[in-house]
Amino acid sequence: MSSRLRILVPVKRVIDYAIKPRINKAQTGIETKGVKFSINPFCDIALEESIRIREKTPEAVESIHAVSIGPLKAQDILRVALAKGADTSTLVETKEEEIVEPLQVAKLLQKVVEKKNSNLVVLGKQAIDDDSNQTGQMLAGLLNWPQATNASKVEVEGDEVYVTREIDGGGEVLKAKLPMVITVDLRLNEPRYASLQNIMKAKKKPLEKIKPQDLGVDQIDSRLEILKVEEPPARHAGVRVENVDQLVAKLKELKVI
Questions:
Q1: Residues 6 or more apart whose Cβ sits within 8 Å of residue 162
Q2: Which 3 state secondary structure label does DSSP give 215?
Q3: For the chain, the helix, strand and coil percentages under 3-state DSSP, each to the nearest 5
């Protein structure tokens, strides 16, 4: 292999997936006070896949670096990433109230990729808070690297990477040479848990804290404006019909047909 893998894994701090989100009183977003946060599930899968690549071919991987863009509290999920197997980490610290949109995230990640000389970026296809599914594609565009999205299987053979994506009726296999960007889907793997022992050991692993300005980004610009966030309308209980005639009558009553 002509070049060992220097894997960059972006991870995002989001409201824990097991918690039902509540809209804040101002109806401008989700209530975040007093709520449990954790690593975004798709990011966790990306981290797990990176670790598995190293476990399968340890000689092929030089390093796994986790990076998070968010408030100071986001260092907690970086500690989890380090406990699970990342070697080093970077927190690009933003203000608590700042919402960093996908394009800004991609621009910051581009700088981190260049700084760390990464040649493979593995990240979740989306975050469960905004569901944008844009950052990986934008990052690949900024870097001018090949990309494979929604990965359900990843195989590294030398400088070539084979990525399987689920499509209607089967799977599509993409092949690209390093460097590249991969976004992962839920079916790729099941992430491991971080043991208490490894969490304690992770405290000794490097966690670098920098500001966006250190990467040449002077201001986090917001291009989107949230006008209002509201609960979906309550669903009415269904009714049981005995035959087709009753079904047609009910559909006519509801003015569906």
A1: 153, 154, 155, 156, 173, 174, 175
A2: helix
A3: 30, 30, 40
Contacts for 151 with CB less than 8 Å, ≥ 6 apart? 49, 163, 164, 165, 182, 183, 184, 185, 188
Q: Are the C-beta atoms of 63 and 7 separated by less than 8 Å?
A: yes
| Domain locations in the chain as residue ranges | 5-225
Cα 89 to Cα 39: distance, rounded to the nearest angstrom: 14
Q: Look at the domain 5-225 and name its fold.
A: Rossmann fold (3.40.50)
What is the mean pLDDT of each successive set of 10 residues along the chain, which is 257 residues long? 85 92 86 89 97 95 96 94 96 89 94 96 94 95 96 94 91 95 95 91 92 87 84 84 90 86
